[in-house]
Amino acid sequence: MILYLDPLMGIAGDMTVSALVDAGADPAVVNAALARLGLGDLEFTFQKVRRQGLAALHGTVSSPVENAHRHLADILSIIQKGGLPEAAAEKAAAAFTRLAEAEASVHGCGVEEIHFHEVGAADAIADIVGACAAWHSLGCPPVECGPMNLGSGFTTMEHGTFPVPPPAVVELLKGRPVFAFGPAVERTTPTGAVLAVTLARRFGPMPAGVLRAAGYGAGSKDTEGMPNVLRAVLLAEEPGDGLVGVTEAQIDDMTPELLAGALEVVRSAGALDVFVTPVQGKKHRPAWTITVLYPPADEAVIGDLLLEHTTTTGVRSSLWKRRELPRTITTVETPHGPLRVKVITLPSGRTRMHAEWEDVKALSRAAGVPAREIAESFHKWLP
Questions:
Q1: Is the pLDDT of residue 51 over 70?
Q2: What was the pLDDT predicted at 157?
Q3: Cβ-based neighbours of 363, under 8 Å, separated by 6 or more
Q4: How far apart are CA 39 and CA 145, in angstroms?
Q5: Which of 110, 195, 327, 368 has the most CB atoms less than 10 A away?
Q6: What rounded mean pLDDT belongs to the chain?
Q7: What b/e readout covers 259-296, taking b as 16+ CB neighbours within 10 angstroms?
Q8: Which long-range contacts (CB under 8 A, 24 or more apart) does 164-169 make?
């Protein structure tokens, strides 16, 4: 499954959370993640609204009144201690780190000197953590994003009135496709921009796939002329004619640490699978064959990454036929927190289930319970 963010009419943090919930993310999972942050009664309330006649979901954050100016270390500590699923925590921490780096570049100072004001309040933490939790609830799908509508006009911030887009948004979106369209208002906020660049592996047109679901997240204003919404689309990845791309390379001169880091880059680019096979190379030297599986359209991207991040001087690619079992993700409420479970349908129609290891690991760490007990016991918590 691919999650495609379509910000042609704008993107903000609360719009992102709302769009993902409208597309199928569990709002209870979002609010459970916020409750674990220790910031008081922090939660989203969702309601259906209309934006220029289009029905959309609008999320409002209820948060304690505060004027906290938090530094990056303060926010990372809140996230680290929040007991979030590891993948969601990593994305949230990465988003705030990117935001701090952008602010530091704009203000000409060190990252450690940045204190967040507009983006450091509890409701902005809710936006970023809530969006990452919603993405996790959807099964952590790879994310792609359309061109960013920045809007136009002026916006007022703590330091005064600035032209749209504000400086931090400009810094965050360097190298990404942008445009300006519609009434003179701010269309892309710093939290919306940082969520897009943190979650998305690619910016461009919607990829090919079977459309499974769509959600619309409403902004606070109902602007004239175009609906102020962010669209989120879930697409099933179905390679044409049941084909999968396969690229291989042979490595005999990299340390295990460097090779592991390189393969993580390839995996995060949307590879379906990456594995290593020990072989005997030329001159009887121990070597590894790197095998990467991916949607056929990504052949050039995967090949470039292998050539760029490993010591190989060449790759070989082919197309293989592939047969897959249908699978879905369901969330089970356990005494230790929500646990995603993969449900696989066999040719006979029977099913088998596996608890998602990242969730098992996160719950084990947070609850002090052996991972084995959670992995072997989830059946008794099924509805």
A1: yes
A2: 66
A3: 334, 336, 337, 339, 369, 374
A4: 31
A5: 195
A6: 89
A7: beebbeebeebbbbebeeeeeeeeeeeebbebebbbbe
A8: 166/190, 167/106, 168/99, 168/102, 168/103, 168/106, 168/193, 169/193
pLDDT of residue 285: 86
**pLDDT number for residue 118:** 46
Q: How many Å apart are CA 114 and CA 96, to the nearest integer?
A: 11
**Tokens of residue 199, six digits:** 């979650």
Q: Phi/psi at 336 (nearest 5 deg)?
A: -100, -5
Q: What is the pLDDT of residues 216-259, one digit of tens each?
A: 999 988 888 889 999 999 998 654 457 889 999 999 999 999 99
pLDDT digits (tens, 9 = 90+) for 330-362: 888 888 889 999 999 998 989 999 999 999 999
**Bridge partners for 89 per DSSP:** none
Angle ∠(349,350,352) on CA atoms, nearest 5: 135
d(CA 39, CA 37): 6
Q: What CATH topology corresponds to 242-321? A: Alpha-Beta Plaits (3.30.70)
Of 239, 243, 237, 251, which is closest to residue 291 (Cα–Cα)? 251
pTM (predicted TM-score): 0.66
Upstream peptide bond of 165 is cis (omega within 30 degrees of 0): yes
Please name the CATH architecture into which domain 327-381 falls.
Roll (3.10)
Q: Are strands 115-116 and 70-71 parallel, antiparallel or unpaired?
A: antiparallel
- CA 48 to CA 55: how far, in whole Å? 7
- Residues contacting residue 81 through CB under 8 Å, at least 6 positions apart: 38
Q: Per residue in 182-220, pLDDT tens? A: 888 889 999 999 999 999 988 988 987 889 999 999 998
Closest CA to 31 of 84, 67, 70: 84
